[in-house]
Amino acid sequence: MKHVKALLIKFVMVTAVLWVVLGLFYGVSFNDILGISTFLTLAAYIIGDLWILPRFGNAVASIADFGLAYLGVWLLGGGYIEENIPLGLASFYVAIGITIGEYFFHRYMENEILPDQGQPANEPVRQDNYATEFSEEQKPDLNNNRDKQ
User: Fold this and answer.
1) Closest Cα partner for 76 from 91, 54, 86, 65?
2) Which among 50, 125, 65 has a CA at the least distance from the CA of 101?
3) Where are the beta strands (DSSP E) in 40-108?
4) What's the pLDDT score for residue 142?
5) 115-119 contacts: CB < 8 A, separation 24 or more?
6) Sign of the torsion angle spanned by Cα atoms 82, 8, 100, 58
7) How many angstroms separate the CA atoms of 88 and 44, rounded?
8) pLDDT for res 7
9) Mean per-residue pLDDT pooled into runs of 10, the chain (149 residues)
10) Predicted TM-score (pTM) of this structure
11) What pLDDT, on a 0 to 100 scale, did the predictor assign at position 82?
12) How far apart are the first and last CA of the chain?
C-alpha cells in the first residue's frame, strides 16, 4: 500500500510539471500529457526510486531522473504530441521541473518507503572500535627524564 501512495504522489507531481510546461506554454492536450506522465511515472519509479536511490543516493537518482525525463518526453513526445512544438527545449524544461520535484520526492522515499532497507551499499560501515588518536604534547615536560628511573 505504501508503494501505491508513493506512485500516486509521483504521478501527480509528474503530471503537474508536464501540464504546466507542455499544456500551458505549448498547448499540448491533456490526453497526451496523461499518456506521457503514466509512462514516465512507472519507469522513473522502478528505475530511479526503487533501484538507483537505495544504492547510490539522492544526487545520483536525481541526475538519472533528469536524463530519464528528458529522453522520455523527447522520445514519447514525438509519438504522442500532435502539436508542432520545439520538443528538445520543452523536454529540457520538463526535465528541470521533474528533477526539482524528484529531489524532494526522494527524501520522502528515503524516510517513509525505504527506511527498512538499511544502509546503502556504497557507504562503508563505520567501526569506531579501531579508532586511534595521534597527537603531540603542547609543552613537553623536560624535567621528566626516563633515564633516571
Assistant:
1) 91
2) 65
3) none
4) 64
5) 117/54
6) negative
7) 19
8) 96
9) 94 97 94 95 94 93 96 92 90 97 94 70 57 64 60
10) 0.74
11) 83
12) 74
Distance CA 47, CA 66 (A): 12
**Identity (one letter) of the amino acid at 24?**
L
Asked if residues 10 and 45 have their Cβ atoms less than 8 Å apart, the reply is yes
Nearest to 44 by CA among 31, 63, 19: 63
- H or E element that contains 65: helix 58-80
17 near 94, Cβ under 8 Å? yes
Q: Are 68 and 40 in contact (CB under 8 A)?
A: yes
Q: What is the Cα gyration radius of the chain? A: 25
CA–CA dist 90, 143 (Å, integer): 78
- List the grid coordinates of 72: 522520455
Q: Look up residue 48 and give its three cell numbers.
A: 530511479
* HEC secondary structure over the chain: CHHHHHHHHHHHHHHHHHHHHHHHHHCCCHHHHHHHHHHHHHHHHHHHHHHHHHHHCHHHHHHHHHHHHHHHHHHHHHHHCCCCCCHHHHHHHHHHHHHHHHHHHHHHHHHHHCHHHCCCCCCCCCCHHHCCCCCCCCCCCCCCCHHHC
| 124 secondary structure, DSSP code | P
